[in-house]
Amino acid sequence: MTDAPITVAIERRIDPEQASVATTWMQAGTDLAAAFDGFLGSGWVRAGEGSDLWYMLYRFRDIPTLEAWEQSTQRSWWLDSGRPFAREVRVERRSGIEGWFDAPFATHVESRTAGSPLEAATTGPIVQPIPAAPPRWKQAVTIWLGFFPVNLLASWLLGFVPGFVEWPLVVRVLLTTVLLTPVMTYLVLPWVTRLLRPWLQR
Questions:
Q1: Which residues are CB-neighbours of 103 under 8 A, at least 6 positions away?
Q2: Average pLDDT, the chain
Q3: In degrees rounded to 5, what are phi and psi of residue 16?
Q4: pTM for the full predicted model
Q5: Which residues belong to any copy of the ABM domain (predicted)?
Q6: For the chain, how are helix, strand and coil distributed in percent, rounded to 5?
Q7: Over the stretch 115-173, which tens digit does the pLDDT of each residue have?
């Protein structure tokens, strides 16, 4: 799905003695990314005071806009400038079904959303809670709880279409999936994940 927002979460090891330099470096990366089309926001957090473990995340509108940033000379220069004190140890992308569960690494993020420099200066950092990733089996249960009643209802309603049961199986499945995919993506799954969020995050 190239038209879905893509969130990239990065885990880095950073020299604790270079914390002030790292903070400036992180903000410089955010400012560079914000100038690119499709940028939706960015943020970072330390694992704890004195820790060398830092988490950074950023989000773009879709894969093409993300790749334009990731393959840019500006990002390459920025990464090179941080190599003396920053070491990347893990990268994770989330989109599509994973994105419904909205589960980057950290629990709290100091975040600046896309906008004008004046807006960023007046509003300041936003502390936004980020849930931990639910187990895969919980994700599977959530998807099934949304899909089963929708599929059942669609099968019952399509049974009223004259001659539908006599259509070739591949045509019936094609029509059903074409009808149900946008319903699941834009209506059912967002609603189900909001409803089950306390259980998913437990």
A1: 94, 130, 131, 132, 133, 134
A2: 78
A3: -55, -30
A4: 0.51
A5: 5-74
A6: 55, 20, 25
A7: 444 344 333 333 334 445 677 788 888 889 988 999 999 989 988 989 888 899 888 88
Low-confidence ranges of the chain (pLDDT < 70): 1-3, 95-133
Structure tokens at 178: 């074409």
The vertex-41 CA angle with 40 and 43, nearest 5°, equals 160
Topology adopted by domain 6-129:
Alpha-Beta Plaits (3.30.70)
For the chain, domain boundaries: 6-129, 136-200
How many angstroms separate the first and last alpha carbons of the chain? Answer: 29
CA 48 from centre of chain: 23
How many angstroms separate the Cα of 68 from the Cα of each of 63, 74, 95, 101? Answer: 9, 10, 17, 25
What pLDDT is attached to residue 131?
A: 47
Q: Which amino acid appears at position 184 of this protein?
A: M
What is the residue whose two structure tokens read 């419904």?
100
